[in-house]
Design goal:
The chain is of the alpha+beta class. The protein is built from seven helices and seven strands, in the order βββαβαααααβββα. The strands form two sheets. Strands 1-2-3-4 form a four-stranded antiparallel beta sheet, with no helix packed on it. The protein has a three-stranded antiparallel beta sheet with strand order 5-7-6, covered by helices on one side. The longest helix has 17 residues. The N and C termini lie far apart (92 Å). The N terminus is likely disordered.
């Protein structure tokens, strides 16, 4: 009598659990005498699995709110192609106002956000407004001069994050234009002058109110 884990086929006993096939010689089939000789045939081992490759995803950049709470400052992006609004505003602050006081840097960020808030006029996001037609420091649609002052970059990112979290500055009363005191653009007389901050003069376009 054989257990449930054994099966007999012409005198050969297949034993399941230990993967060993045991066969008892049959004198009538093989010509061996009945000496109790048994043959054990080991089943070939399974092939070793292929090496498993693991990849760590790139760390997610910190959000403006996380940066405000003390998260690490990201490095400057290689270009503004597919950049975040945080990066676009920080690049603009760095190139337009890194020599200004903190309030002046906030004001530049505020203008960018104010423009983005006016539907279908200049651009519906911060990055759509940081373009060569609006900012002369841009060398092409996505390229800008290299950022070399690490401390000024870190400060620009921190200010950009705070303005993104809090929104445009109420002290600017919706200002969506500015220029330096060194120039007198043709569009300035058509605007409502708001105030001067450091060497920038801020204005609001009267047409902007009706567009909001």
């Amino acid at each position: 009598m054989h257990s449930a884990s054994e099966a007999v086929y012409h005198g050969k006993t297949a034993i399941g659990p230990n993967r060993i096939q045991q066969a008892t010689a049959d004198p009538e089939e093989s010509g061996f005498d009945n000496s109790g000789l048994t043959l054990e045939v080991a089943i070939a081992p399974l092939p070793r699995p292929a090496e498993v490759m693991t990849f760590r995803p790139a760390p997610r950049p910190a959000t403006p709110a996380e940066i405000v709470r003390g998260a690490a400052i990201p490095p400057p992006p290689p270009s503004l192609r597919n950049a975040s609004d945080l990066s676009c505003i920080a690049v603009a602050i760095y190139h337009e106002a890194r020599d200004q006081e903190e309030f002046g840097q906030r004001a530049v960020a505020s203008v960018i956000l104010q423009r983005a808030a006016i539907p279908h006029r200049w651009g519906d996001s911060a990055c759509e407004n940081v373009v060569p037609t609006q900012f002369s420091f841009m060398t092409s649609r996505y390229e800008y001069p290299k950022i070399e002052d690490t401390d000024s970059w870190r400060k620009a990112v921190s200010i950009a994050a705070e303005v993104l979290v809090n929104g445009p500055l109420p002290e600017l009363h919706g200002a969506d234009h500015y220029h330096t005191t060194a120039v007198s653009p043709k569009w300035a007389p058509k605007m409502v002058r708001i105030r001067s901050i450091d060497d920038h003069i801020f204005y609001v376009d009267p047409h902007s109110y009706s567009a909001l």
